[in-house]
Sequence to fold (80 residues):
Amino acid sequence: MMKEDLTVPTNWRTNAIVARIVGIVSIALGFILGMYGLDEQGSRWLQTALGLLVTGMLAQGYALYCSVKRMQELHDQSKT
Fold:
């Protein structure tokens, strides 16, 4: 068998857990840096905080996507 023929099943649960952890940490750091950035006018901390908040929200969205895909796979397996 060739290596290209082997497919690795996607572990949606692990992907969702990692994405949730990254999302929570990013959002928390974003709020902390945002408060610091509001105190220090003209610093780059506020822009960094906004980037972390966006990253955290995207990670949470991906975690939701992984959870939905996992539920779909579980539902499809129960039908067969």
Observations:
- The radius of gyration is 19 Å.
- Residues 13-79 form one domain.
- The chain has a mean pLDDT of 89.
